[in-house]
Amino acid sequence: MGTISMGILAILIWVKDKTKKVTYLRLFIQIVSVPLIFLGLIIGPFGLPQFPSVGNAPRDVVIGTDIFGRPFPDGLSVPILACWYPSGRTVTCPVWQMQAYIYPFWDSGPGFGWGVIYTTSGLERLAIVFGLVIIMAIILGRAFCGWICPFGLYMDLLSYFRKALRKPHFKLSDKVNVGLRQLRYVIIAIFMVLSVILGSQAIFGAQLVSGTQRGEYLYSYLSAPYCQICPMRPICVLAEVGLGAMNSTFVFSHTTGILYEAGYYITSINMAILIFVTVGAIAFRRFWCRVCPVGALTGVFSRFAPFKWVSVVRLNKDKEKCTKCGICKRVCPPQITEVYEKNGGDVTTSACILCLRCVEMCPYEDCLKVNMAGKTIFKSRNWLNSK
Amino acid sequence: MTVKTESEKKYIPEISQKEIEELKNSIQATSTKVIAEYIERMKRGWPNRPEAMQYFDEIANFFGTRGKEICEAKEEGRKVIGYTCMFAPIELILAADAIPLRVSSGWYDPAKLGNRVVPVEICPVIRSTIGVKIIGLSPYLELSDAVITTLTCDGMTKLSEILGDYKPVWTICPPRIKDSEQSMAFWREELKTVKEKIEKLTGTKITSKKLRSAIELMHKAAKAFRKLQDVRKGHPVIMGRDAMLVNQASMWDDIERWTRKTEELCAELEKRAKEKVWACPPDTPRVMITGTPIIWPDNWKLPNLIEEANPQGVIVADELCSGDRFLYDPVGVDEWTMDDMFNAVAERYLLPSTCPCFTSEDGNEDRVNWLITKVKERRVDGVIYYVVRGCMLYAMEYMRIKKVLDKLNVPVYYLDTDYTREDTGQIKTRVEAFLEMLKSRVEI
Predict the structure, then answer these.
(1) ipTM
(2) What is the extent of the structural domain holding A342?
(3) Percentage helix, strand, coil, to 5, in chain A?
(4) A328: which DSSP letter?
(5) Quick check: A163 contacting B, CB < 8 Å?
(6) Size of interface A-B (CB pairs under 8 A)
C-alpha cells in the first residue's frame, strides 16, 4: 500500500504536463491492480496443479467469506474481466459467476476445481454477486473498466505499442460503434438465457438439452457458456501456465473435438477471438470495450434511469464553457461522441470507461468536470500552463 | 507565378503607373501619420504604460523593422505565406519553415480605392484589402509568396478571386455546418490540399517532427496569449486597446519572439495587479466588443473612442477573430502521430471557430456560448456590437446575441460604422451615451 501511494504521489509531483498526468496515473493503477487481482496466486502455494483434491485455494486466505460470514469460494466479484479459471482468483469476473450460479452451481454442494463446497444456494450466491456488482457500479461506475480491468490494460499496452510504431489508429464509424453498444446487452442476455437452458435440470428439474446433467459430457464443458468465447481466458490461463502456477499438461491434455483443440481451458473460439481482438486493439483503441458484456453490466448504472440517479460518479459538462473544439471526441478511446454532442449537463454514457482522457485534454477551464457524489474531484484545466 | 499583365487581370481596372505611385505616396504618408498618432494616443491614454509595450509599438509600425526582417528572411530563401482569415493553418505554415502573415487590411484610405473595383456596399475589410493591393501599400501583402483565403463570407469569397489578379491565391472552403462527419472529412481534405501546396511552394516536406515542433511553438504562444487574456479578468491593469494591439502583433511578428515579449509584458502586468497599480480607475465601465474584426491601424477608431471617451470605458474582452479569439484555442494532440497531429490542427481551425458564417441546428451556438462565458468571466458591464457596413453575417446575428445578453441583463449597443474617419464625432456621441448609461449602472 505504501509503495502504491508513493507511486501515485511521485506521478502527481513529477509529471508536470497536465495532459499526461491522469494518463500516467491510470497506467500506474492498472499495472499495480494486476498483482492485486491475482493476489491469491502470489501468496498462495505456487505451482499447484488444479485438481479437486487440493483443498482450500490460496485466495481463501485473503477472501474467505463474504460480508455475511458465509464461505465465498469463487473470489470477490468485481466488474472487470478477471478470469475465474486460473487458480489465483482473488477477484473474479461477475459474468462467470452469474452463469455458473445459474448452471452448474445452482445447488449447494461440491463445485469443481479446488474441491469447493458451496454451503449457500445458487440463488443466494447470485444475490451476492448482483449485490456486489450493483454496489460497485453505483460507487465507481465503469471506472473499473478504465482504471482496473487487466484486459483494458492489455489493450492499452497494445495501443502504446502502436504509438511506438508511430502508426495512427483507425476509427469505427459512429453508427457501428453505437450499434455495438446495443449488441453488448444482446450478448449478455444470450449467455444468461443459455445458462438457464443448460441448467434447466437443476432449476426446473427438467432437462432441455441432453448431456447437461451433472457428470455428463456437456456439464463441465459448457459450465459457463460465455467463458468459451471470452478473449481474456486464454491470456490468464496461458500467463499462469507460463509462470508455472498451472500445470501445463493438465491444461493442454484435455483435447476433445475441434472446439477444445488447445485443451479444456482454452477453446478454439477463445483463441480466435483473442487473436481477433489483439489485432483489433492495435488498430482501434479499446476495441473489446465496445462489446464487453461486463462493461454492459456496469454501464447500465451510468446510463439508464432509474439506475443512473443513484450512480455516484458522473461526468458533467458546462455548456457555456464548451467551444465544441472536438478534442474530447477525438481523444476518447471508446469513441464516445456524447460528451461532444450533448448540450451540457450530465454527459456520462454507458460506453464511457471513465478514463478521464477528455477531461484531461479539454483546454477550457472548468468545462468538463468529474463529480463524485456531487463533489467535483477532477476538472478540465488550461493545460497550456503546464507546457 | 509570373505577374499578370494588365490585360490578363480579370478584375482590376487599368490604372496608370503614375497614378498608383502618387496614390501610394500620399496614402503611405497619411498611414504613417495615423499609425504614429494612434500610438501616441495610446501612450497618452495610459500614463504608466509599461516598457514592454514599446516592442509592440514597433511591430505595429507597418513600415518599420519587421518588414525589413522579413525581406532578409526571404533573401535567405524562406517563403512568406499571407492569409486573410484565422482559418489558415499557421502550424502547417510554420512546419514548412515559412512565415505566416495576416494580410487583411485595416486601412481607411485604400478602401476608397477599392470602390473602383467593388461597390461601396461591400464591407470595408474587403475594399481596403483590394485597395492596398492595387497600390502595394502593405509590405506584408507585397512580401507574401501566396495568400491563403478562406471562403467564409461573400466578400472573402470574391476577394480571393480579385487577389488572384496579383498573386497565387489558395482558397480553403470551410463547410457551413461544422459538426458532422462529412464536414470534417471535407475540411480535412481542404487542409490536405493546402498542406501540399505549402510543401510545393517551400520545397520543404512537413514531417511529423517539424509539425510537432510547430504545434509546440504555437502552444507556447497560446499560453502567453491566454495569460494576457487572464490578466484582463481582474481590475484593469492594461488598457483594452493595448491588449488588442498585442493580440494583433502576433499576426505579423515572429511568433517565438512575440511569445517571449508577451510573457515579459504579462509578468509586468501580474506584478502590477499584485501592487494594485491600475491602468484606469477600477470602477471604469467594463466593455466588451463583438462583431466584425477590428484591424490595426484605421480600424482602431472604436477602441480609441471607448477608452478616450468621457466617461471613459475599458475594453476587457472582445469576440473578434482579430482579437481574443485568434490564438485562444490550442491544438489538442492525443497521439503524436502525423495523422492525429494533422487532424488536431484541422479540428482546431474549424470546430471552435465562432465565425457567423457557420450555422447548425442551434444556430451559431458556439458564439453565444463564448460570449456568455466571457461576459461572466470578465465581469463585463456592457457589450458593443460592432458592425461595419456591408458585414451581413455579423449584422444578421445581432438579434440572437441581443436576446441572449438581455437575459444576462447585460446592455448591448449596436454600433454600425465604416472604416471612415469622417463619422468619428457622431460615433463618439453614441459611444459616450452608452458609456454614460453603463457608468450609472456601475455606480448603482
Answers:
(1) 0.88
(2) 313-386
(3) 50, 5, 40
(4) H
(5) yes
(6) 82
